[in-house]
Amino acid sequence: MARDLRLLLLGAAHSLNHSLFAITPPLLTVIMADLGVSKHVIGTVSMAASFIYGFGALIGGPLGDKIGEAKTVILFLFSSGFSTFVMFAAGATGSIYFFALALILMAVGASFYHPTANSLISKAFTGRVSEAMGIHGVGGTLGVVLTPTIAWFIGSVFGWPVAFATFGLLCVIFAFLFIENFGFRDAENKSRAAGSIIEAFRIRELWLLLVFNITIGLFMKGVELFFPTYLQENRGIKPMWASVAYTLVLAFGVPGQWIGGKTADKYGSKRVLIAASAFICLSLFSLLLVPVYFLGIAVFIVLYGLFFYAHQPALNALTGFLSPESQRGAVYGIFFFTSFGIGSISQFISGYLADIYGLDIAFYVLTAFAIIALLLSFKLPERREPK
Predict the structure, then answer these.
(1) What is the pLDDT of residues 96-128, one digit of tens each?
(2) If you average pLDDT over every residue of the chain, what do you get?
(3) Which domains, and CATH codes, for the chain?
(4) Which residue in 123, 154, 329, 370 has its CB near the most CB atoms, within 10 A?
(5) What span, in angstroms and rounded, lies between the C-alpha atoms of 120 and 130?
């Protein structure tokens, strides 16, 4: 029961972590109009925030080992929550600089979460690590499923800065709930020396997995930012329905996380990652090539939602299996950085290509990254027991 409560609390924190970055896409056209910027500029700002979101994980993993996982999660909730209020300055002044500052401050705090949570789960749920990773992912995805639609509604009625502040306030409130109820203290082991980033890079078995992780980030971040805008500009979908479509992608991620975790424990992470990569490619081809637009969009929503999220627990579990426990926080920090940090370059690339050639070309480039990930998945190492 205690372990289940811990997983539930982590799932809630996971939800808020991702919700903060699911607010921008459905409101992107409104934000760009208010701030008077192009897709290239907004893509560059998003890339900077995403890079910091990933880079901070290199600090967050070792920090969780040093000060304790509970304190690290609470630090994320407070810092990111208060940072959202800077959006009011951006809205009042119409300044892209305040918007960038707010996103970056949110990213700094939020970056501490994932390596801390993944490291803890990999140590606390031996025997069913993939399933626990999947349940943790379900918790995060369940909460974020409605974020795009809720954010669009709040933003369209009260203004987009209020949408950010609403979720920021939830972070602050939840931080206080964690202080009162968080039950991880007995699971923390502060006497063990934390692994370093340099030591983690010396684990040669992880190198190919690391490259695979980078290619995932290189299509994920671009799709994440521009999918609603793609539907509006290239498929004639109204803004509200584009937000609903983005929400549906996340909704299919809920069973995707659970299925990915269960099947990885049963059949192995490598097989799940190969299957997930193949269906992700199929989903992108459907979006771009199926002549009946609504059919192609529907296929994309189902396949991408299910299989993109199915890959996460399998990949996180395999990463844990291939890394020593003493270095696991640092390893998860590196992997989060490469996916969300280096992967954020695709937001810059996508925005640049979209301004010059259109979003169709941008999405073809994102599809190319997905194809590379599929080819790499066949060469991934097999699961083995952790050291």
Answers:
(1) 999 999 999 999 999 888 888 887 777 777 667
(2) 85
(3) 2-181+191-377 (1.20.1250.20)
(4) 329
(5) 13
